[in-house]
């Protein structure tokens, strides 16, 4: 009974636009745990015991939070389902304070990026264009990484299947569009790369979100770029994104 209720709940959440992959797996695990314990309704004690089996407090809070939201949903249909208390505290972590890059810092990043790749001069051009596009548009790193040729249009950038699986059009300033077209002209000339990624690595694949330490895509000189751009909170420099 509880397994079917979880399947129904997961289907509703996905129908409203949520991917709900890991969350669905957690709830299915909880349902199996509860039914193995002979509980066919949400039981607070069982939910706390199941969530408490995780090693970290933050993970326990997150697991219990999923059950609480599910219990609130199913309790409206059947009052036999209990709504567990949040005994493990808040499941959300404090957000890091965003760092806003100054115009001078952006220029330094672009200059450092342009100097990458002594044996592959196009690599420096790729990194410089990539970071410049982030600064000019405020795109998420993953959104810029997955841009393909067909996503760059005269009207702007088509960002596909982003947050909540939604797509949007990002307008570009004429100077940004001109710089991007200049880069793409050189990019398309590399016929040995069959990939349609706008920002490829040396092997033709799209950038990795977290380059491996031993990879040729992250030498000592690019460590600053990787640290600041890939791992720092997403920030938008003043004057680069319209309000």
Task: Write up this protein.
This protein has 243 residues and is mainly alpha-helical. The model is unreliable at 209-224 and 226-243 (pLDDT under 50). It has two domains: 2-75; 103-230, Intergrase catalytic core (hpI Integrase, Chain A). The chain is 47% helix and 4% strand. Strands 1-2-3 form a three-stranded antiparallel beta sheet, with no helix packed on it. Strand 2 (156-159) and strand 3 form a beta hairpin.
Short description:
The protein is mostly helical. It has helices at 2-15, 21-36, 44-51, 57-75, 103-114, 121-137, 141-145, 174-188, 223-230, and strands spanning 152-153, 156-159, 168-170.
CATH topology of the largest domain, what is it called? hpI Integrase, Chain A
Strand order of the largest sheet: 1-2-3
Strand count: 3
What's the helix count?
9
User: Which structural class should the secondary elements be placed in?
Assistant: mainly alpha
- Poorly predicted ranges (pLDDT <50, ≥5 residues)? 209-224, 226-243
The named CATH superfamily of the largest domain: Intergrase catalytic core
Keywords:
mainly alpha; 3 strands; elongated
Q: How is the secondary structure organized here?
A:
Layout: H1 2-15, H2 21-36, H3 44-51, H4 57-75, H5 103-114, H6 121-137, H7 141-145, E1 152-153, E2 156-159, E3 168-170, H8 174-188, H9 223-230
Antiparallel strand pairs: 1-2, 2-3
């Amino acid at each position: 009974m509880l397994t079917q209720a979880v399947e129904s709940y997961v289907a509703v959440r996905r129908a409203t636009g949520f991917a709900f992959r890991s969350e669905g797996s957690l709830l299915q695990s909880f349902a199996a745990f509860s039914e193995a314990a002979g509980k066919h309704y949400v039981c607070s004690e069982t939910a706390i015991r199941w969530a408490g089996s995780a090693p970290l407090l933050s993970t326990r809070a997150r697991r219990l939070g999923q059950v609480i939201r599910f219990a609130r949903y199913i309790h409206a249909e059947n009052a036999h389902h209990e709504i567990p208390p949040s005994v493990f505290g808040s499941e959300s972590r404090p957000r890091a304070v965003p760092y806003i890059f100054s115009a001078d810092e952006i220029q330094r990043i672009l200059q450092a990026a342009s100097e990458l790749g002594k044996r592959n001069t196009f690599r420096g051009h790729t990194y410089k264009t990539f970071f410049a596009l982030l600064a000019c548009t405020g795109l998420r790193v993953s959104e810029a990484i997955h841009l393909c040729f067909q996503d760059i249009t005269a009207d702007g950038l088509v960002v596909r299947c982003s947050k909540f699986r939604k797509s949007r059009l990002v307008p570009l300033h004429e100077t940004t569009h001109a710089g991007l077209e200049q880069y793409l002209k050189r990019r398309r000339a590399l016929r040995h790369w069959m990939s349609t990624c706008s920002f490829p690595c040396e092997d033709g694949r799209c950038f990795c979100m977290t380059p491996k330490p031993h990879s040729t895509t992250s030498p000592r000189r690019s460590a600053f770029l990787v640290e600041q751009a890939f791992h720092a909170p997403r920030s938008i420099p003043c004057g680069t994104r319209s309000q």
